[in-house]
Write a structure and sequence with these properties.
Largest sheet: 7 strands, parallel
Oligomer: single chain
Distance between the termini: 33 Å
Order of helices and strands: EHEHEHEHEHEHHHE
Helix content: 40-55%
């Protein structure tokens, strides 16, 4: 049990990477607060965790709203007495298309969900970490922040920001024994996949994406969850500011 005794908050936990992270963390002994804008999806995840003998609570909220993020943190502290790990997984994107075809409202929403959410997480979780004398923040960035490509310009910009924020936060918080790390997944067959593909979501379009990955497959929620598990665990106690590419060699 690599997370025994720890309390973890996972955002965007209702599906995709977040669901995989929440389930694996619970299986490894963590008490999990599964937060999602879709409260029903979060509830299904926590019910599955409970059915497997784990301990989890669901919270409905929008990670771009301060009061909602405060409620997520409070659910952990009030429900379980502490907060050891925050996984900032919730994210969104715009449709793959020329950059000037993305309107201002869509641009703003992508930045609010992908970037502002990390700021809000820090605002509400770091004071808890400071009181405890330790904590770990895991930010889910993307290979798009390392190797950007046409069509997803503004999404790539948000993930580049998350990578830079991770490194800067890590340096500032290190003296307080608070670690900040990131995971950069390559494309995965989650709900956002069609938005990333240029044109229609077809087997041929997916094959063209897979052909850019040296190991020859997309990432899975379990791949990402395993990386997060390691980074959140005491085994990674000397790691901070690092951004782990879970990408099958895409960024080499």
């Amino acid at each position: 049990m690599r997370l025994a005794g720890k309390v973890a908050l996972v955002t965007g936990a209702g599906n995709g990477f977040g669901k995989g992270i929440a389930e694996l963390f619970a299986a490894q002994g963590a008490r999990v607060v599964a937060a999602d804008i879709d409260g029903g999806a979060a509830g299904q995840v926590t019910a599955a965790i409970a059915a497997d003998g784990g301990d989890a609570a669901a919270v409905t909220g929008d990670v771009s709203r301060s009061r909602d993020v405060a409620a997520m943190v409070a659910a952990a502290v009030d429900g379980y007495g502490r907060l050891d790990v925050v996984v900032n997984n919730a994210g969104t994107t715009h449709r793959n298309r020329p950059m000037l075809e993305v309107d201002e409202d869509e641009y703003q929403r992508v930045f609010d969900v992908n970037v502002k959410s990390v700021y809000l997480s820090a605002r509400h979780a770091v004071p808890v970490f400071r009181r405890q004398g330790s904590g770990v923040m895991v930010n889910i960035a993307s290979t798009a922040g390392v190797r950007p490509r046409p069509g997803i310009v503004w999404y790539s910009a948000t993930k580049g920001a998350v990578i830079t924020m991770t490194k800067a936060m890590a340096l500032e918080l290190a003296p307080e024994r608070i670690r900040v790390v990131a995971v950069n997944p390559v494309i995965s067959a989650t709900a956002l996949l069609p938005a990333f593909l240029p044109g229609e979501d077809t087997p041929e379009a997916r094959r063209r994406m897979i052909d850019t990955i040296p190991l020859g497959r997309m990432s899975t929620p379990l791949d990402v969850a395993r990386a997060c598990l390691f980074l959140a665990s005491d085994e990674a106690g000397l790691l901070t500011g690092c951004c782990l590419d879970v990408d099958g060699g895409r960024c080499v």
